[in-house]
Design a protein that fits this description.
This protein has helices at residues 15-20, 37-46, 57-75, 78-89, 115-130, 161-179; strands spanning 23-26, 29-32, 92-99, 102-109, 135-137, 146-148. A hairpin with a 2-residue loop joins strand 3 and strand 4 (102-109). It is α+β, with helices and mostly antiparallel strands. The N and C termini lie far apart (56 Å). The strands form 3 sheets. Strands 1-2 form a two-stranded antiparallel ribbon. It has a two-stranded antiparallel ribbon with strand order 3-4. A two-stranded antiparallel ribbon has the order 5-6. The longest helix has 19 residues, at 57-75. Helix 3 packs antiparallel against helix 4, helix 3 runs parallel beside helix 5 (115-130) and helix 4 (78-89) packs across helix 5 (115-130).
Length: 180
């Protein structure tokens, strides 16, 4: 288990979007949490996956493939991204079971290093089934973060009102004050 703090400005989004948010901009420079297995360990711990999925080089490689597949799908189109996401999903499956508590589903992987990547791709399918129009990119022009809009009326525009939303408001205010 990693003891490093997650440095990302936005965490806690659904797994698929949280994976996309492993890249972010800080002062005009793109940061990448998944630059190495240390960052992978931080991401796994941040998402409660570190106990079941070790942070090895294969897991990192697979997770990077999943991130690119999801990025293509979310920022491009379903037509472009579908084969890429499907390629990740081909490495696992859901096993239906009956337990003492009732019906259960659990993921299975022929190669456990595909686990985190597969779980993120599967989560994207769940988000699409739940509310595809609520999968959003931050409206700030320099922000690359994504979020799942859980606001009541579905009008959230910013990854964070405190950061990007405030910057946009300040920018508009500055532009208005220059006109006067």
């Amino acid at each position: 288990m990693s003891t490093s703090r997650d440095p990302r400005p936005l965490t806690g989004e659904p797994l698929a979007l949280d994976l996309l948010n492993t890249r972010w901009n800080r002062e005009g420079v793109t940061q990448d949490l998944l630059a190495d297995t240390g960052g992978l360990a931080v991401w796994l711990a941040s998402n409660g996956l570190d106990a079941a999925h070790p942070a090895g080089a294969d897991a990192l490689r697979h997770l990077l493939l999943a991130r690119e597949a999801l990025q293509t799908t979310v920022d491009g189109s379903l037509a472009q991204g579908a084969p890429l996401v499907d390629a990740v999903l081909a490495h696992g499956r859901i096993r239906a079971r009956l337990t003492e508590e009732g019906a259960a589903e659990e993921p299975e992987f022929a190669d456990p290093s595909w686990g985190p990547a597969w779980l993120a791709a599967r989560n994207y399918l769940e988000l699409l089934a739940q509310a595809p129009d609520r999968i959003r990119s931050c409206a700030h022009d320099t922000c690359v973060l994504h979020f799942f809009d859980t606001s009541r009326n579905g009008t959230r525009r910013w990854c964070s009102m405190a950061a990007c939303g405030n910057r946009a408001k300040a920018s508009r205010h500055y532009a208005r004050s220059k006109e006067i």
